[in-house]
Amino acid sequence: MSRRIFINIPRVLCHFNHRQQHNMAKCIARNREEERMNISFEYGATGARPKTFSFDRLKSEEIQVAIQRMKKNITAKLSKKKKKSKKSEDVQSEEKMEEDSVDLPVSFEINGSKIEENSSIGQVCVPGAFLWVGEQKYEIEIDPPTVKTLKLPKNLMIGFPVYPKIDLENSELGDSKFIWHRVEQCKKSTVKTEVGKGFTYIPNSDDLGHSLSVTCTPKNGGRFGEEETILSKETVGAGPGQCPFEVRHLFTSEPSREGCFRVVTYNILADCYADTEFTKTTLYPYCASYALSLDYRKQLLLKELQGYNADVICLQEVDRRVFNNELVSVLTSLGFQGCYKEKQGSVREGEAIFYRTSKFRLLGEHNINLTEQLKSDPKFSHILKKVSTSKAVMTELEQRGTVLQVAVLESIEEPGRKLCVANTHLFFHRDADHIRVIQGATCLAHLQHVLETEKEKDDDLSLIFCGDFNANPKSALYQFMTSGGITEEHHHLTVKGTGEKLESSTFQHNLSLRNACGEQRYTNYVGGFHAVLDYMFIDRSINVTNVVPMPTHEEVIQCVALPSVVFPSDHIAQICDLTWK
Of 468, 534, 570, 577, which one is the catalytic site residue? Predict the structure, then answer.
């Protein structure tokens, strides 16, 4: 008979999983909290269906006290059914069950020796320990690999990767095993055909109209946990066919060569902005409603990112749950590690940087909230002095939760070479040039400080600054970024709504930045608006060896504008192959 027992410790939870092996059931113990433990198991008297029992106890509680509590609850639970039964033979069976459970023996032992009466619950949940309930003996296994959650998405489409939403305990995603099956419902039977292995699976034409199932076997070192299987609720559909980004994949079909690294910057359109009544009816009325849902867009997005074979990926407008549940799961399985910096405020989205672990290792992060640091950090005092004279400007800045994400990476191929990767998303309003210049000046002042600090260690350090800057190439911000400075004689920065001029709006930096992707027609294209807003700025220590061509204008407007059934975002990814000089 297959049974389970759980022992749960708020930092020591024990889960007993009973498998009949040589007449020995298994007891699985999970560590969770420091002070408490939960014991849960299935048990049934002779001839009765097993029931699940759960006991939440202090780890320090003496074992005899815990055992008495277990006996009492087992007796009570097994006796409950008697009151609900209407058949006399069932009543007699339950009465016998109650009699059997009154003096139910419950005990623990370790390596064949009985536990001393003053032992605590925490002391008995160790390797080599056993639990006896009646005549059933359970072997205790500590912290087994476990699948806690396993789900499949609603949208399953030919040619687009599908992957489970999964929550593992005591197991790493990369260690676990996944097997995919096509499930065909015939008239009198169900036919299961193995179709793939690995965390992701790409359905093909043979899967059309059929369900998919995935089985996960969690693993931790040499230990395997109990497998879990989930069947999709929907069948595989045809999907949108070839997407324009798949043409771009022709230029990135091979990984970057040694000594080269490929970088992607991409505003992926946060789900909190995409799937709302406003976006469906006003902002993107031309886009099919289903194509704005995350369940649909994430499949396009992840296929797009996977096909670029990038080494560094900078993403903007990343929902926290999308980072945790979608991006980390899939990109980790592809050899990436990621870090996330959320904006401050009510909207839970921010910036994410992923790096390929075969190319880079993370040395540290230097993230900041722009307004907070501007007001509190002395290294920004020269900027604060110029802008604090305007109450309107300070009020506007304080309403922005803009962040700068900074990760310092070291090359695996050439140890000692470092890459400072910066990522941001500046304020979007068309009349906010003055705010973006201040935000840009704050970003570059911080990056100069990071570079100077790292260069004191005598390592080669290069800078890549990616993001959605919400500024076109003729803007004051773009001039500031690429020319090294801006003066009020060239750009009279006007405060939105008040007409007030921002005095002393002269800012400088010495980072010698240039736009790696060169001139583009646009990087953002929505109904009634298009512009170049996204950039990948690099310093003089980096060479550009290849820029992946943008989609054609005809491809962009085939469904009126972006996003669409073939474009998951209203922005277009920028991709470059770079080398150190």
Answer: 468
